[in-house]
Amino acid sequence: MEKSIRWETDIKTALDKAKMEKKPVLIDFFNPG
Amino acid sequence: MDAVSYPDEKVIDFLGEYVVACRVPSSSEPLSSEYGIKWTPTLVLLDGEGREHHRTIGFIPPEELVPTLFLGIAKAHFNRDEYDDALKALGRILEDYPRCDEAPEAIYMQGICLYKSTRNAGRLREAYDRLLSEFPSSAWFKRAYPYRLLEAAPPMKEEERKAA
Asked: Which of A5, A22, A30 sits opposite B40 (nearest CB)?
């Protein structure tokens, strides 16, 4: 199975996960087209 | 980013190990306004409280994406006075990507972190010497230019060397 990035799509979920895992959050603001 | 950088295996591994990756359309409000997003792609590195520590605008190739995010991680630690952790992230840039675009800034920040953790101003002079030797045309060499007036540092102790 091909590897891929596991993206969160909700900032609150991402911040909660970051606190729990003691990691920073990287947000990619992208152009949806 | 979708076609080149994000499918790269080193980028995938880095994001999985070191950050929580979150992707939102630039039209997402109020988030986009809160972070002042004006162009895409914009990458913003936050701590768990939502405070910004680093940002990039525009396409970044895979060989530059990992070091720029290590630099962001170093800045997040630096801003919290966590100099040992900042030095670890800076060390990854300088060991694994010694000629990358972020290397001059990493050398400059390494000098600052070593100075702040040891109060030895010679570490700033070391940063100047290294920038003079390796990146004399970089903007970070210009910023380090005043440090040429400082005395050279004595050799680093073993624990300082490991941290650097």
From this structure: A30
Residues 6+ apart with CB under 8 A from B149: none
- Chain B positions touching A8 (Cβ under 8 A) are 20-23
pLDDT digits over B91-145, tens only? 999 999 999 999 999 999 999 999 999 999 999 999 999 999 999 999 999 999 9
Model pLDDT for residues B9-47, shown as the tens digit of each residue:
999 999 999 999 999 999 999 999 999 999 999 999 999
Domain ranges across chain B = 9-163
Which among A1, A3, A9 is positioned nearest to A30, based on CA atoms? A9
Level-2 CATH architecture, domain B9-163? Alpha Horseshoe (1.25)
Paired strand residues for B56: B43
Contact B22 A22 (CB under 8 A): no
pTM: 0.91
ipTM: 0.95
DSSP 8-state assignment for residue B151: P
| B6 interfaces chain A, CB cutoff of 8 Å | yes
